[in-house]
């Protein structure tokens, strides 16, 4: 199976008003395809852990090596991503898409904060 992500990023000035004149528009088109043998399915969960990191089921559990991670949050959430035994914290407030190198897969995912998290992880195992 494959995960395929297709989209575009459009950067443009706000709608013209009496005090502004529209400028240029930049569009970046992208498509990424990653093969996978294991995946979490789309998981949506409410997180209520403002003081402690909790394990997000899937990455490192049902999918032991994650090469593709899609994650969206409804509020600022601290996400701990473990690769090669080294955890690192990032704050996500909205959308995060991460493609990991095959030599440095994601092997663990934990979160701290309050809000709704939606995520999908896929990899070779």
Characterization of this structure:
The protein has 125 residues and is an all-beta fold. It has one domain: Jelly Rolls, CATH 2.60.120. Helices cover 0% and strands 62% of the residues. It is built from no helices and 9 strands. It has strands at residues 2-11, 26-35, 38-39, 43-55, 68-73, 77-83, 86-92, 95-99, 106-123. Strands 3, 4, 5, 6, 7, 8 and 9 form a 7-stranded antiparallel sheet that branches. It has a two-stranded antiparallel ribbon with strand order 1-2. β6 and β7 (86-92) form a beta hairpin. The mean pLDDT is 87.
Characteristic key phrases:
125 residues, mainly beta, Jelly Rolls, seven-stranded antiparallel β-sheet, two-stranded antiparallel ribbon, 0% helix, globular
Number of strands: 9
Beta-strand fraction estimate = over 45%
Return the string of H and E elements. Answer: EEEEEEEEE
Quaternary state reads single chain
Catalogue the unreliable spans: none
CATH class: Mainly Beta
Mean pLDDT: 87
How far apart lie the N and C ends? 12 Å
Q: What is the fold-level CATH name, i.e. the topology?
A: Jelly Rolls
Main sheet summary: 7 strands, antiparallel
- Using only C-alpha atoms, the radius of gyration works out to 17 Å
Condensed summary:
With 125 residues, this protein is mostly beta strands. Helix content is 0%, strand content 62%.
